[in-house]
Amino acid sequence: MLKNYIRKKIIKKREIKNKNNLQVKISFLKQILKKKKLQNKIVGSYFPVNFEADTYQIMKILKQKGFKLSLPVIGRKFDMNFYSWNLNDPLYINKYGIPEPKSKVKVTPSILLIPMVAFDKQLNRLGYGGGYYDRFLKKYEKKNIIKIGLAITFQEVKKLPSNSFDRKMDYILTEKKLYK
User: Fold this and answer.
1) What's the total number of domains in the chain?
2) Which residues form the domain of 96?
3) Beta bridge partner(s), residue 126
4) Which of the residues 51, 136, 137, 175 could staple to 167 if both were Cys, CB 3.0 to 4.6 A apart?
5) Full-prediction pTM beyond 0.85?
6) How buried is 63 (Cβ within 10 angstroms: 0-12 exposed, 13-18 middle, 19+ buried)?
């Protein structure tokens, strides 16, 4: 199956099935944080659009546990960086319709919560096709950022085609299951 075909199919399915902005099971995330002994780290999250798995409750809980939050900002040369953000800070909508922080404080997250269009059990991720997360992860490869993909169960496919520049997730969380 081609990536574009899978992308269109799952986005359409997500629009129909995720009208209520489903959330992943937060206890799975807590399990990872406890196992990895992670605390007071910088978490790169995202503000959900296009019926993606909701992150607001996760960000709220992480903030209460002492984690620092950040959100991505898309740059002019197809790059992406993360900037500090707090739950009450204003956001603006970029040209892709994605909320971004107004913060000018650039940070490098230790943990990334990554939106997905589709995924498979081998921890491969399919995004929107821009390669922003793949390039970001390549740029910070030596930082060993923990990559956690967030999705809804119906976004799973049997096998995703992958290329050498595609970055696998360390974990994938859904509302029903933790993949590792």
Assistant:
1) 1
2) 3-163+170-179
3) 118
4) 137
5) yes
6) middle
